[in-house]
Amino acid sequence: NLDHRDIVFVSNEEDDDKQSTVLDLAVSQDTMITFQLNGGDGEADDKHTTAQGDIEEDVHDTPPNLILNMALNFLKPTLFLLVVAFTTSQMVYASDPDIISDFIIPANASTFIDGAFFTYTGLRGVVGTTPPAFKVTKASLAEFPALDGQSVSLAVLQFPAGGVNPPHTHPRSAELLFVIEGSLEVGFVDTKNVLYTQILQLGDMFIFPKGLVHFQYNANSKVPASAISGFGSANAGTVSVPATIFATNIDDGILAKSFKTDVATIQKIKAGLVVKA
């Protein structure tokens, strides 16, 4: 059972005459490869049989473009694997970059660094208070420069009775939430549009996978709730779904068609998202 393929080459001889050469490549099931070079008259000029992957043909008797094609055929699988490996490695390490020093000192910081540089006091007085609406107090790179290069940040989430943290995502990190007051209904939606929800009590923890839309809600109409969230990035980023869709000047007509409603409804939703002074 042989599979024959003819490849035609044109080579220049010493007398500048062009001569066609046909390579008859026969691959047998016992992994033997037969190369037969035929001249223009159809008679066999040379024939070599060797084990697959170990071609011993004299390069002087082989057309140069045949050698190139043979080399490319052997290299293609290797090149493909290298590309896949490189792409995968970039995906694995797509997070805060590693640093080659113990810590990073901002360019505008004092040359003298002491313990104060590694201390953040912005959360004093936050825990134990109840804001009138949902509030997030962050300790991220923007607020705490010492976090640069450390791949970590934190936020305190405060929910009044009935308060909600609207659906949102963190594109650069997962979120680990720890309930320190009251209870919370939490959930996230995966890339298959499956919703995962849970009611958390005081002391419970919940993980929101990186980049997925999620929310937190204090369903209790009388008791406030609070939580602390940790992130594996100094700047996890937050993309609010309602604000991104309805507060970024996307055309009302496009939104109406997307949500299968009318422009008046879209405008009403937008008006409800306006922050009142």
TrEMBL record:
GO terms for cellular component: apoplast. The keyword Secreted applies. It is found in: Secreted, Extracellular space, Apoplast. Keywords: Apoplast, Disulfide bond, Glycoprotein, Manganese, Metal-binding, Secreted, Signal. Mn(2+) binds at residues 168, 170, 175, 214. Residues 124-267 form the Cupin type-1 domain. The keyword Cell inner membrane does not apply. InterPro entries: Cupin_1, Germin, Germin_Mn-BS, RmlC-like_jellyroll, RmlC_Cupin_sf. GO terms for molecular function: manganese ion binding. Oxalate binds at residues 165, 170, 175. Pfam families: Cupin_1. Oligomer (believed to be a pentamer but probably hexamer). Belongs to the germin family. May play a role in plant defense. Probably has no oxalate oxidase activity even if the active site is conserved. This is Germin-like protein.
